[in-house]
Amino acid sequence: MTNTPVESRRRGPTKGDLRYARLLGVGEKLLAEKPLRDITIDEIARRAQVTRPAFYFYFDSKYALLAALLERVLATQFDTADRLWINRPAELTPRQACEQHFTEMLALWRRHAVVMREAAEAVRLHTAVERAYGQLLDRFIDAASTQITKERAAGVAPPGADVRALATTLTWMTERNLYAAVAGLGPDLTDRQRVTALADAWLRAIYETAAP
């Protein structure tokens, strides 16, 4: 008997979905206790209450698990960027949208600091992490490029540097600043100072003013 659309919507997550989510949750908890290099597959499987072969059904290595954790965090980050910046609500000025965007982004990185620190440091150690990191940042660069092009075409932003180069520079500048914040590197800035500076950098680079 074929399930109706209503029945399909009512169906909850499968056992496989729950097992996958449990592995991600355990992975992040273990990262809060020690670096990935000191975590074993057996330890992850035991804490997640799955067998070692079951772990490998979902991930081919602990670095693949880290890549999945990274993808989950940055997917949320992109949703925030899409909601506040790429499709900016009409009632928000670019300045308001930019500051709210960076405020939420920094809070997200702080909530998942262990994942973001480990991923940033492991990006050259394993191709799965490097590929995930690069692809996810490219997604932000693509979106920023589209937004800058749209603002220039509308006459809101003046002509300037090559769009792709500008979007790439701003995106990587932001990533390094967020990493420094959660890794405790560089000057001891407050979150408000960091958000204000990031917003200024983006707005001045795109609009040639901090209050477009």
Automatic annotation (TrEMBL):
The UniProt record lists the keyword rRNA-binding: no
Gene Ontology terms for molecular function: DNA-binding transcription factor activity; transcription cis-regulatory region binding
PROSITE patterns: HTH_TETR_2
Signal peptide range in chain numbering: none
Gene3D superfamilies in alphabetical order: Homeodomain-like, Tetracycline Repressor, domain 2
A Pfam family that the UniProt record links to this protein: TetR_N
DNA-binding region: 40-59
Coiled coil: none
Keyword annotations: DNA-binding
Record-linked SUPFAM superfamilies: Homeodomain-like (SSF46689), Tetracyclin repressor-like, C-terminal domain (SSF48498)
Domain HTH tetR-type: 17-77
Protein name: AcrR family transcriptional regulator
Native source species: Catenuloplanes atrovinosus
